[in-house]
């Protein structure tokens, strides 16, 4: 039973939601089956107390139908009925959070009952709710379209004056246009970001027509949601022109309050990913831009999910700061944002960032003390930690420690099959680090061959560091 979707749903509800659900199933308007009340109460109790007896249907059947022999069919029906009831409860809870949809349904009900005067008041109230909220994203224009279309339905079906319909239709058209254009651009950005496959031809055709429309008619660029996603799409596709990125960056900052936190986060991630992509092509401007985007995103709380900062984002922000040698800023950030990490990963991600910070500052004793005391659960963090130690041992000439690390590092790589793509990159790092450390020949040809081998090896990490160490050998 604990593996059932019904138990899983109830176990994810909070204490207040459990209380509301219990009241909901007791309402005769929603439920006339007393056994569902008993069943729901037992599931809530099991979820709250982690009752070990909650594994079997037989256990619940004996509580719901005392004195009866177990009937699997009857139990299945009971589970199904309660499942539908819980889903209905969750739907109504969501509707309570969506004032606009709830108010629109109220107005629609009055329209269908022919209560035109009350309908007018309710639909105007719906518009006031919509206009009062700050967001002007694509969803705003969808809501505006649905409200105006409801008003159109009221006048068209009531066969009232065409003058009112003449006022409503342009509004409907504008809202529909803005929603369609903004959503087409947004989805195209998503296709480019995830690159799981090429965007289907029919969608590309609509996109090309949309782009042509925007570029020919300045009218649509007055809407921030269109202007922002237009520049985002061009930023991702016309990478040789920095102006689209610059526009996108300033538009996010200027219009951040018209988007929900969730969508604002998506926009900042678009900017972050673009900066990383361009920086990986050795465009130095974007290394600095990446750090600035992270700082602005933090100020806008765009990287938080339920007041928590993701561990990888925590690491990436520190790395971006270290790349800009913003050591004081990074030191403050590491400490300030540690409490925003989820447990149980908090300490590991904190220590990793601390080690990375000290490594950049060349405080090698502190780095070694941190990394020798912990094994990271995250595979790539453990790989990065070992990589740090490898470079430190090499530079400090710690022969015994370095050779011990060579062996343990290789064993770790071979044990973790999930590394796949990264496997050869790290094995080649070990291979060429060992060759550089052991190189004692005075033959210039042998030294030059070693450099050529490093350069021509594609599957290798820390190539720049290896070539720097090669240059030290040559000198």
Characterization of this structure:
The chain is mostly helical and 475 residues long. Among the domains are: 5-97, no CATH class; 375-475, no CATH class. Helices cover 75% and strands 1% of the residues. It contains 23 helices and two strands. The protein has a two-stranded antiparallel sheet with strand order 1-2. Helix 8 packs antiparallel against helix 9 (162-194), helix 11 (224-237) packs antiparallel against helix 12 (242-255) and helix 12 packs antiparallel against helix 13. The longest helix is centred in the middle third of the chain and has 33 residues, at 162-194. The radius of gyration is 30 Å and the shape is flat.
How much beta, percentage-wise?
A: under 5%
Q: What is the overall shape? A: flat
Terminus-to-terminus distance: 71 Å
From the helix content, strand content and strand pairing, which structural class follows?
mainly alpha
Question: Helical proportion?
Answer: over 70%
Number of H- or I-type helical stretches? 23
Total number of β-strand segments?
2
Uncertain segments are: none
Strands of the widest sheet, in order across it, are 1-2
The string of secondary-structure elements, in order, is: HHHHHHHHHHHHHHEEHHHHHHHHH
Question: What is the C-alpha radius of gyration, as a whole number of Å?
Answer: 30 Å
Biggest pleated-sheet summary: 2 strands, antiparallel
Overall mean pLDDT score?
93
């Amino acid at each position: 039973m604990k593996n059932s979707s019904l138990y899983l749903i109830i176990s994810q509800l909070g204490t207040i939601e459990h209380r509301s659900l219990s009241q909901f199933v007791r309402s005769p308007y929603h439920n006339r089956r007393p056994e569902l009340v008993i069943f729901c109460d037992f599931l809530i109790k099991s979820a709250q107390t982690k009752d070990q007896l909650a594994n079997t249907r037989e256990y619940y059947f004996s509580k719901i139908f005392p004195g009866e022999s177990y009937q699997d069919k009857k139990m299945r029906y009971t589970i199904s009925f309660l499942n539908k009831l819980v889903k209905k409860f969750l739907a109504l809870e969501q509707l309570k959070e969506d004032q606009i949809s709830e108010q629109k349904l109220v107005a629609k009900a009055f329209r269908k009952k022919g209560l035109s005067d009350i309908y007018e008041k309710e639909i105007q109230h719906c518009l006031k709710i919509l206009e009062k909220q700050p967001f002007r994203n694509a969803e705003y224009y969808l809501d505006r379209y649905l409200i105006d279309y409801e008003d159109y339905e009221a006048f068209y079906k009531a066969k009232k004056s065409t003058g009112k319909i003449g006022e409503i239709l342009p509004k409907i058209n504008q809202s529909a246009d803005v929603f369609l254009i903004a959503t087409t651009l947004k989805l195209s950005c998503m296709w480019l970001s995830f690159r799981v496959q090429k965007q289907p031809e029919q969608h590309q055709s609509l996109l090309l027509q949309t782009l042509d429309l925007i570029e020919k008619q300045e009218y649509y660029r007055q809407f921030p949601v269109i202007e922002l996603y237009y520049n985002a799409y061009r930023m991702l596709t016309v990478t040789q022109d920095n102006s689209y990125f610059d526009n996108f960056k300033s538009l996010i900052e200027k219009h951040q309050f018209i988007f929900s936190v969730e969508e604002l986060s998506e926009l900042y991630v678009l900017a972050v990913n673009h900066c990383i992509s361009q920086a990986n092509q050795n465009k130095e401007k974007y290394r600095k831009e990446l750090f600035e985007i992270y700082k602005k995103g933090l100020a806008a709380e765009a990287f938080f999910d339920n007041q928590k900062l993701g561990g990888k984002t925590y690491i990436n922000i520190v790395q971006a700061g270290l790349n800009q040698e913003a050591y004081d800023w990074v030191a403050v950030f590491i400490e300030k944002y540690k409490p925003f990490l989820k447990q149980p990963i908090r300490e590991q991600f904190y220590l990793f960032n601390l080690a990375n910070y000290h490594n950049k500052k060349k405080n090698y004793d502190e780095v070694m003390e941190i990394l020798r005391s912990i094994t990271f659960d995250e595979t790539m963090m453990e790989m990065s930690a070992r990589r740090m130690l490898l470079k430190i041992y090499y530079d400090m000439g710690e022969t015994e420690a370095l050779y011990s690390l060579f062996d343990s590092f290789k064993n770790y790589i071979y044990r973790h099959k999930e590394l796949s793509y990264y496997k050869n990159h790290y094995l080649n790092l070990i291979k060429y680090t060992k060759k550089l450390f052991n190189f004692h020949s005075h033959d210039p040809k042998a030294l030059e061959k070693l450099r050529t081998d490093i350069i021509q090896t594609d599957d290798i990490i820390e190539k720049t560091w290896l070539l720097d160490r090669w240059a030290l050998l040559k000198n």
